[in-house]
Write a structure and sequence with these properties.
Elements lengths: L10 E4 L9 H5 L5 E7 L5 E5 L9 H5 L6 E4 L16 H6 L4
Antiparallel strand pairs: 1-4, 2-3
Length: about 100
């Protein structure tokens, strides 16, 4: 049984069937983590691939893509164990609030 590897940084998922390799996302990526593949998809188009690391999750690639289903940005949820205790208002400040 294969385990699902949880990535700790954001990453794009490219739908290779929908991608037409227009290159807009590659140009829009500030981190330079997208590139054109030399392979083609089932429709005969080249497609974009993620280099594997370095995505900031900004979404520029997503917003510049003309194909609505070609790119998704996955942003992992933060681990609640690492967030520390929930911040609460100090009790003294709550007592000082006067009703209107």
């Amino acid at each position: 049984m294969s385990e699902k590897i949880q990535k700790k940084e954001p990453y794009p998922v490219i739908n290779t069937l929908e991608c037409k390799a227009c290159g807009r996302c590659v140009l829009a990526c500030r981190k330079g983590v997208l590139k054109l593949s030399d392979d083609t998809n089932e429709r005969g188009y080249r497609y974009v691939v993620y280099k594997g690391e370095g995505c900031s999750g900004c979404g520029d690639c997503y917003y510049t893509c003309p194909e609505p289903l070609a790119i998704e940005i996955h942003i992992p949820k933060k681990d609640k164990k690492n967030e520390g205790e929930k911040k609460q208002w100090p009790r003294s400040s709550l007592r000082e609030i006067q009703p209107l």
